[in-house]
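Two proteins were folded this term; both appear here.
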Amino acid sequence: MKVILTEKITKLGNIGDTVEVKTGFARNFLLPNGKAMRWTRENVALFEAKKAELVAREVAAKKTAESHVDAVKSAKLYMIRQAGDTGQLYGSVSSRDIARMLKDVANVSVTSAQVLLGSPIKSIGAFDTQIALHPDVIVPVKIYVAQTQDEIEALVAGKVLTFGTKKVEEETTEEKPAEEAPVAEPVKSEESAE
């Protein structure tokens, strides 16, 4: 389906571009959200009449996004979640969770589609992602996910958290001397008796 874009859309085009998109994408997303108009001669003329207004609205949206950059960069995105012994979360941290946290921490409203996370976070650690406040204003952020505030502070300090192996090492170092000493002495006494 041929449409005229009424706002800049990443990977598709700028305001006023005539693009060919799939019918479902146009009917279900672009047209209902006012991001595009069907391409007809009447709509081309209508777009030309509204072009100055649409460009002004786009510039205002970009300025608003740029004013929120510092708030997003300075936001402390710390998430405390429950996890297993290996560091795997019970559940995950999704783009919706990050958008909600940005609203709470930095008072910046973004949709989950603006959080460029890729796949959900399913383990404890520090993760890099981006927030697209506007198609031209993309802010890199770091998200820290841990079980406790102490673990988050360690992650922020740059330390690597280890799970499962630390407890096993402590147990084995304590048990080995206790097990080896009694087992080693009777073996030596038996050999000397023979």
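Next, the second protein.
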Amino acid sequence: MEKAEGTREFAIIETGGKQYMVSEGDTLKIEKISGDFKTGDKVSFDRVLMVDNGRDTTIGEPYIKGAKVSAEIKRIDRAKKVTVIKYKAKSNYFKKRGHRQPFFEVTITKLA
């Protein structure tokens, strides 16, 4: 079967408290997943909210049972520094804090 021109198979997954629309070959930055992961490891996301293949759309309630999206970790890094400043005028109050949020850069390999 041939895919219609302009359509692409995609899924909407949930990870790290955020939702992402992904299709095969996409690269995206996600929140760090707890566990002992290294670059090149395979991860799978089973919290799939919706799948569309161009002809049929499946919507979960809230997740689709048995649906899975596979990905490979390409990079583990930390984002640029986020600086938080709290300041109150005329009261000698100044706090400066910052942190670098860790993330995984993953490439989607398979929608199942």
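The chain has a mean pLDDT of 93. Residues 12 and 21 are 4 Å apart (CA to CA). These notes refer to the second protein only.
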